[in-house]
Design goal:
Blueprint: E1 4-10, E2 23-29, H1 36-46, E3 51-53, H2 72-77, E4 80-81, H3 94-108, E5 114-119, H4 122-129, H5 138-153
Parallel strand pairs: 2-5, 3-4, 3-5
Antiparallel strand pairs: 1-2
Helix pairs in contact: 3-4
Length: 155
């Protein structure tokens, strides 16, 4: 797979550490159109949670071409956040996303132990997560993905 799945825990003081204190973010990252959306939906359905987009273009209603937005049918399967939530006429940047997404995560963690964060915009992910140093080595990530794939996706 081209995309990678990371799992990190988030605390209320915006530090990302293990063990889990507030909730767990399942972070699914990779370039456009590699299949992140179906994986994110399968994970969200398995864990009875939602998908939070971390894509800098999917957030804009008017941007349809080249964004690989989840279809209406896919969005109906599980709730999605930050898809078509802004107009390109709005002033919106990574800093705004980071603040809004962090506030959203705190609300979502009151209902869900885990949240799937899916996207290809490294800048948006960094704006939310800050300088996270918990990312695992590539070998562990690939092993983790294979386990998740066999357990939750292939079945």
């Amino acid at each position: 797979a081209i995309y990678k799945i990371y799992t990190v825990a988030v605390t209320t003081d915006r530090k990302f550490v293990a063990p889990m204190k507030q909730g767990t973010v399942i972070l699914l990252v990779g370039p456009t159109a590699v299949g992140k959306t179906p994986v994110a939906i399968r994970l969200a359905r398995h864990f009875h949670t939602v998908v939070v987009s971390a894509d800098s273009r999917q957030v804009f209603r008017e941007m349809e071409i080249g964004t690989a937005k989840p279809t209406a049918e896919e969005r109906a399967l599980v709730p999605h956040h930050f898809i078509d939530s802004r107009s390109i006429a709005d002033d919106y940047d990574a800093g705004s996303y980071g603040e809004e997404a962090f506030a959203l995560l705190q609300r979502l963690f009151s209902e869900h132990a885990r949240v799937v964060l899916c996207g290809g915009s490294g800048l948006y992910i960094k704006a939310l997560l800050g300088n996270i140093s918990v990312f695992l080595s590539s070998a562990i990530i690939v092993l983790g993905f294979k386990i998740i794939y066999r357990t939750y996706i292939k079945s």
